[in-house]
Amino acid sequence: xxxxxxxxxxxxxxxxxxxxxxxxxxxxxxxxxxxxxxxxxxxxxxxxxxxxxxxxxxxxxxxxxxxxxxxxxxxxxxxxxxxxxxxxxxxxxxxxxxxxxxxxxxxxxxxxxxxxxxxxxxxxxxxxxxxxxxxxxxxxxxxxxxxxxxxxxxxxxxxxxxxxxxxxxxxxxxxxxxxxxxxxxxxxxxxxxxxxxxxxxxxxxxxxxxxxxxxxxxxxxxxxxxxx
Length: 228
Hints:
Layout: E1 2-5, H1 11-15, E2 20-23, E3 26-29, E4 32-35, E5 38-41, E6 44-46, H2 48-54, E7 59-62, E8 72-77, E9 79-80, E10 83-84, H3 92-108, E11 111-118, H4 123-129, E12 144-145, E13 148-151, H5 176-184, E14 190-195, H6 202-211, E15 215-218
Parallel strand pairs: 1-7, 2-7, 8-11, 11-12, 11-13, 13-14, 14-15
Antiparallel strand pairs: 2-5, 3-4, 5-6, 9-10
């Protein structure tokens, strides 16, 4: 079989479609760090006991003693490393640079994809920042972006937590669709919305958001069990 290092620039092309054995790596198993080979093909991890009995690897990848871990997925992160996704700097380039910086730093901590999260804000803020959260795959320059997570502004004032009360909207009536468009603008880059389902008009809003392919999460809510 072919032997390549984990940091070989040709690695991605070399392993495509082949049976791969990751060697000289450590994994967490049963609460302990153990030395173990890991097998995969086309992105799927295989049962090493069954594979090793049948055939040799097409490619062996030397991990040089490093820890092998799943990539973490963060679906609620409001910023990091001095940059806040909910603060618009009046400069599109500065904001884009901030997002790129956070993506790069998150990757250093094992996060391979994330949903930049914006708390309850003014419509102007949503409309300025959401266009910068287009979905993109991760690469050597940083973690991938899964689309925006917008928390609010359709939440319960009683459960607002750190969200600024002046921007909280306690209803989605008379038209939930109009409210969504008026507040967020273009929703194409939004993947997740946190909403309080007990608000007037919220059920219609949830239907609209789902029809647009957006996941809806209950949060900052005073809903009882039945409403939930």
